[in-house]
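Cross-check.
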Amino acid sequence: MLHDTTLIATLAAAFGLALVLGFLAVRLKLPALVGYLAAGVLLGPHTPGYTADMRLTQQLAELGVMLLMFGVGLHLTLEDLLSVRRVAVPGALIRIAIATAMGAGLGIYWGWDAGAALIFGISLAVASTAVVLRALESRGTLESLSGRIAVGWLVVEDIAMVLTLVLLPPLASALDGSAATVASGGALAWSLLRTLGSVAAFIALMWIVGRRVFPWLLWQAARTGSREIFTLCVIAAGLGIAYAAGRLFGVSFALGAFLAGMVLRESEFSHRAANESLPFRDAFSVLFFVSVGMLFDPSLLWREPTRLLLVLGIVTVGKTVVTMALVLLYRYPLNTALTVAVSLAQIGEFSFILAGMGVALGLLPREGQQLVLAVAVVSIALNPLLFEVVEPVQRWIVGRSRLAQLMTRSADRLAELPHSITPDRVTGHVLLVGYGRVGRRIGDALRGAGIPVVVAEQNREIVDRLRAGGMAAVAGNAATDPAVLVQAHVMRARVLVIATPDTVGVQAIIAIARQLRPDLPTILRTHSDEEAELLRREAVCEVFMGEHELAIAMTQAVLARVTRSARST
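Predicted model, tokenized:
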């Protein structure tokens, strides 16, 4: 019997061609996603040969974004996001405003009306969630300070775009300057309040009800002993919550999936849930890049090269400079500013949606939509290459003393310990680098034992909070700036404890500490046997790995229980 095979053909063509071109890209020393984008171009309607179903591909790509955000939610806590709120919220809003102004100014220069220029500018203001998360995960920096700031920025942008999409239809007649009835201020205010209320209601429901119900569901699935049931429960919960968020509360699918992940993180099975969903996230994220490539019309490269380069300059250079300046303005280290700026230097899914709505409402010319799509493809392809220049650019800036001085924290009160800290608190102390989930527990235990602690932490809000609580703490990146360890009195420390999860950063901190104090005992954490062996061999440190320490603790508990049982009998 004949039946419709559109879905099968689309998946087979997308995965097959993405595999071949992704493999070729890697062999040519290019990022794999360049091959995925090329696969989409070949499968799209603008090139000869087989054309995949675009509507199906875009829906599958939406699944990829949802699963990516779901995975991020499983790794980050609300506390992680709140710890960067002072830079993420105002920073994201200011950058949206500046990027929108740059894009709108370009549109007006081309002779577009104000409405078209505004929609075009907003389309260039938001980064692609899928690209940012993929880049951070592949580099192991998702849970770092840079990763948390970037994710916080994405969440703010997501909410801002949801509000924009809600308000755009009632504002359309005002933006195109027609004589049609313009929505009253009261109607616009009501739309805004209703949307904000829906978002708030969804978040409250998830936090009050979801964090109790869904971890319980995971526990019930785990009790069955069936891996299939557990995996099905994880995927069903993530996608189900995301879909309900979009349909019932008007929240974007991506934001709904992110909150679903954060809720499920309350379960003791969150790590298993993250591992079980990983293959689905990887597979469907590939489809996202394929779908982006399908939208691209290559002929635009030679039809409108000047306009394309101007818009690309706003996205990859203008936004990068603005983001970097904002992060530095909030006194974060140069490396953090560069990483956050580069990770957000592209546009993606919300840009497509907004440009499409602009065309549908008669506000944005199709030329503007094509420019948005073309710049999205090119900027996404360039993004991995931009990450490769972060370290060289940082070395170049640091190598020029006058430029470096402008970006240092010479007048930063958090970069030095307060004068009120007495010498006995910075002599024979434990120097604790990193005050995340692991570092916080170590610090609490040491303080409880009456041992003096000095904390070195990149997150300025955490340092502010620690100082308010009476702890000695300095702000800065100990992996790139020796002054951080100097200000934390590494020369008089009894032991150095490195509690940050970034292996590369850990090695840099050890190298700096060895130069300043070669005999300083060092204790650190890692995530794999290979990393542990590397650090033990090169740094001669005491290394702890989570799984090993958990196994040791559980074994000791089992032996103690067995011993007690044997004595009782």
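The CA atoms of residues 325 and 486 lie 26 Å apart. The chain has two domains: 6-179+187-399, 413-557. Passed to J.P. for a second look.
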